[in-house]
Specification:
CATH topology of the largest domain: Rossmann fold
CATH class of the largest domain: Alpha Beta
Order of helices and strands: EHEHEEEHEHEHEHEHEHHEHEHHHHHHH
CATH superfamily of the largest domain: Response regulator
CATH architecture of the largest domain: 3-Layer(aba) Sandwich
Shape: elongated
Number of helices: 17
Strand order of the largest sheet: 2-1-3-6-7
Distance between the termini: 51 Å
Number of strands: 12
Strand content: 15-25%
Amino acid sequence: MNHNNREYKPTVLIVDDDNEVLMSFNIWLDGEGFRSLTAANSTEALKIIEDEEVEVALLDFRLGTENGLAVAKMLKKVDENLKVIIITAFPSHHAAVESIKSGMFDYLSKGDSNEKILETLKKAIRDREMDIYKKGAAPPGKHFLKFIVICNHSLINERLENFSLNYPDFKLMKTFGSLELLKETEFVPEVDIAMVCATCCIESFDDSLYFFNELYTILPTVKPVLFNENFSDSEKVDLIRIGIKGFFSIDMDSKKLETALSLIKKGEMWTSRKLTSLALPNGPEYLKNYLEHVEAYLLSSREKDILKAMVLGLKNKEIAEKLFISENTVKTHINNIYKKFGVNNRAKAIRFALEKKIL
């Protein structure tokens, strides 16, 4: 199935022996942007799971004479990535515990608010995609741009979650309220882009050096972008030099966000030409001045090349590919630079070079 188009909607299967329940959920979920399918028993449900790509099943705990948990296990044998949410008109603590112990994603009451049910569905969809990535596989026909968000503003996170649902080629893997929460998480998804809220994460420009050094340690190949920021042009120039790929307006519309993320994944920048040209100067005079400064710290020619690449935001793997050397050799040279500068991490090395006008 090819989902690589704007018409794709997450598919939810509703399994219930009550036809009125099926109709009401079907109409409601269709109106909320889902593609909903219905089944009145296990036979119909199995046929749909075999024929369709279904993200989540909303399954009645008591399906006529059938046991909902037994039906759920049958469905998951066909699709192990399927997320099953048990839903019932007669909730009980015992049934909830039994459902969770049986591997169900969640247990809900039919009397729960629409908001709670929708939130649970969205979480189940994201968890399913996360499971697929952890196993190293991608759903057929899907080629995602994967991103995370580091921000503790609930409205911003909700907006980006909705963007991910409405634009299926862009998958929000996870939101983190802070860098510390990202560092503490048990599983850090492999992503293309990290969207960082400046007001949540960075109190000053100096903080950015530490922040992004830590981020690169966790996600060495990530392309970071900043939003909700108020940096001066000169600070933005320095941020570009340490690897920031763009600056997003907080009120950027979805279409522009789609364009910006796509360009950044391809290796382009989302910033003004003026800032890019200032951040990435070239020409004999710049290189001459640069080399004169680094000479004072007795850097070898290879260390000079690596320092230049670090300043331009390249990661160890990219530096190795650019200079045709191993990644371990790059790490050795970087450690030598640290020793000569008297620092112990990448951000401090770049900051030292800026302060000493080595750059």
